[in-house]
Structure formats: C-alpha cells, structure tokens
C-alpha cells in the first residue's frame, strides 16, 4: 500500500471536521455548512485515486447527487414560509438522497463500483453519519411515514439488488442499502440504538472490505486468490460475512437483536417481517462470497497482489467474534 499524500491527510481531516460541525450544529445553516465541507473534502479523495479509471466518473456522480440534496435543503428554507408541514418532509427526502437510501439509491452502487476499497469504507460509514444525525432532528408524525417507507424500500432493494451481482463492490453496496433499513428503523426508536447499530456495522463491514482490499478482490472470479494455505484469512472472511448477516453468536447479531426487540414491543410485526426476510436474502449472497472463497481455492493460485500481514487482518476482525462484549455494549442503552 502506498503512503498517504499530505493532501489526502488534509482533506480527510477537513472531512471529519465537516462531520463534527454537523454533529455540533445549533442551526440548520451551520449543519448545511458541515455537509458542504464534508462534500468538498470527499470529492478530492475520490478523484485522487490513480488505480481506477472510473474514479473521476464516480466523483462527478457523487458531486451532482450531493449538490442536488444540498439544494433541496436550501430550498426548504423559503418554502417554510408558505408550507410549514412540508418543510420537514423535503429535508427528510434530501437527507435520504444524500445517504443513498431507497428509493433514492440509484447513484450509490455505480459510485461504489468505481472507487477503491478504502474509499468504499469511507462512503459506507463516515459519509452516512451527518445525514443520519440530521434525520434524528427532523422526526415528526409526517416524517415517520416517510422513514418507514424508506426503511421498507431499503430492505427490499438491498436484498433483491444483490442477488444477481458478481461484483463484490456492488454486492457490499446493496448490503449497505439493506443495513440502512435497520438503521432507519433504529432512528425512529431511539438515538442510542442507532448509534450501537451504526458502530457495529461500521466495524464489521470495514473488516470485510479490508480483507477484500488486501487481496484486491473485485469479482467472483478473483476469489481463487484465497489459496488453500491462507486458511486463517479465509476463515476470518467467512465468519465476518456471517457477522454482517447477523447470525447469533457473532457481533453483527447484537444490534439486530435490539431492533427486533423494539419492533416486538411496538407491535410492528409486518415491518419486522419485511426486514427479516430481506436479511435472509442478504445472508444468501454473503454465503455466495464466503463459499466461493473456499471452493475455488486451489494450490496453483498462491500469489496475492498486495502482501499484507495476516496478523493485522486477524487483529482487526477479532471484533466479529466477541459475543462476550454484549453485556458491556448493552450499557450504552441506559
């Protein structure tokens, strides 16, 4: 891996500063400034990649969509003078567009397909923090129906969209859309639950993307680079994908368990059924990646394109196998 350039460190710092500005904003104008600072810092990070010929196209798509979302937020200010109730709905739709949530997901998989794995980690985790924080501020009776429809749409689109994919970045993009359905539901219940779900998803998805980045896996055909001698990395990828699917002994099950409990308490069984059925479909294409990495491995393919110490990968992904931490994570709810 090449060292970070000073400009990349600068833009990454201002990106975090933009997220922090939105997090600590006391007015919508300050929150909008934080969103713009975040956007203008992320565009150079996308366009600076030399290893992918589609990085410029992805950065342009990302800029246009984010600019449209910011314009909608600005347009809601004068509309509030005439239509008070519709202002929060417009802001909610704009934030859903900026996150890439269904039914405004059309830009997210193509952008993810054109960027590198470290950039995929950023767009799937850090870039979703500010819009989701603002969604917690605009909750009201009209927006609750919008969030419910968006949650159901994310569950269906994320599950169905990843079934016929053979590109690993698009699969994880649709996986991110599916997990967004659970996060939108957690936002409607309480902010602490959303925080736990988001942090768990960020760690688990980052561990999967780091493994795929270490071997430069972008297509199912490249899964044969997991040779039969790297059994530890193959096992870690298998269990990390199961953790993303939310199977019980692993870390990814804990936040879904909390959300399911809240669904049962609020008697929202139809909504919960949609999310659970979509989770089973996502588990299917997680298993496609995991099983392919095992079945396609044979001794002739023993060379990894990027030599990364296996100990680092194993250390990063140990968080997926720590159900003993569940009681400590539960303390955040109180």
What does the model show?
With 334 residues, this protein is mainly α. The protein is 71% helix and 0% strand.
- How far do the termini sit from each other? 42 Å
- Give the C-alpha Rg: 20 Å
Low-confidence stretches: 300-309, 327-334
Assign an overall shape: globular
Domains (count): 1
Percent range for helical residues? over 70%
Number of continuous helical runs: 15
Number of β-strand runs: 0
Strand content: under 5%
Output mean pLDDT: 82
Sheet having the most strands: none
Secondary-structure element string: HHHHHHHHHHHHHHH
Which class of secondary structure composition applies to the elements?
Answer: mainly alpha
Key traits:
single chain, 334 residues, transport, transmembrane helix, EC 7.1.1.2, mitochondrion inner membrane
Summarize the structure.
71% of the residues lie in helices and 0% in strands.
Secondary-structure blueprint:
Elements (H helix, E strand, L loop, with lengths): L5 H18 L4 H20 L7 H25 L4 H16 L8 H6 L3 H8 L1 H10 L5 H21 L6 H22 L1 H24 L16 H15 L7 H13 L3 H27 L14 H8 L8 H5 L4
Helix pairs in contact: 1-2, 1-7, 2-3, 2-7, 3-4, 4-7, 4-8, 6-10, 8-9, 8-13, 9-10, 9-13, 10-11, 10-12, 11-13, 11-14
């Amino acid at each position: 891996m090449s060292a970070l350039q000073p400009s990349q460190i600068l833009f990454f710092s201002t990106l975090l500063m933009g997220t922090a500005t939105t997090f600590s904003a006391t007015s919508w104008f300050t929150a909008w400034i934080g969103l713009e600072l975040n956007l203008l810092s992320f565009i150079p990070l996308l366009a600076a990649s030399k290893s992918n010929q589609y990085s410029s196209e992805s950065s342009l798509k990302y800029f246009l969509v984010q600019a449209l979302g910011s314009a909608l937020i600005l347009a809601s200010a004068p509309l509030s003078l005439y239509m008070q109730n519709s202002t929060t709905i417009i802001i909610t739709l704009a934030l859903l567009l900026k996150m890439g949530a269904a039914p405004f997901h059309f830009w997210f998989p193509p952008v993810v397909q054109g960027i590198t794995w470290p950039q995929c980690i950023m767009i799937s985790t850090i870039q979703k923090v500010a819009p989701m924080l603002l969604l917690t501020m605009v909750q009201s009776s009209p927006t609750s129906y919008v969030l419910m429809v968006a949650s159901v749409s994310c569950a269906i689109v994320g599950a169905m969209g990843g079934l016929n994919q053979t590109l690993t970045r698009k699969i994880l993009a649709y996986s991110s859309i599916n997990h967004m359905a659970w996060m939108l539901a957690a936002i409607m219940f309480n902010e602490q639950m959303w925080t736990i779900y988001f942090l768990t998803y960020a760690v688990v998805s980052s561990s999967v993307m780091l493994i795929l980045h270490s071997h430069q896996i972008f297509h199912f055909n490249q899964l044969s680079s997991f040779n039969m001698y790297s059994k530890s990395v193959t096992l870690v990828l298998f269990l990390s994908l199961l953790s993303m699917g939310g199977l019980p002994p692993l870390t990814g099950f804990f936040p879904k368990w909390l959300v399911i409990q809240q669904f049962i308490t609020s008697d929202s069984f139809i909504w919960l059924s949609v999310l659970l059925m979509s989770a089973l479909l996502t588990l299917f294409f997680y298993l496609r990646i995991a099983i392919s990495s095992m079945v396609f491995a044979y001794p002739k393919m023993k060379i990894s394109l990027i030599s990364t110490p296996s100990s680092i990968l194993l250390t990063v992904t140990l968080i997926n196998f720590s159900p003993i931490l569940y009681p400590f994570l539960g303390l955040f709810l109180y």
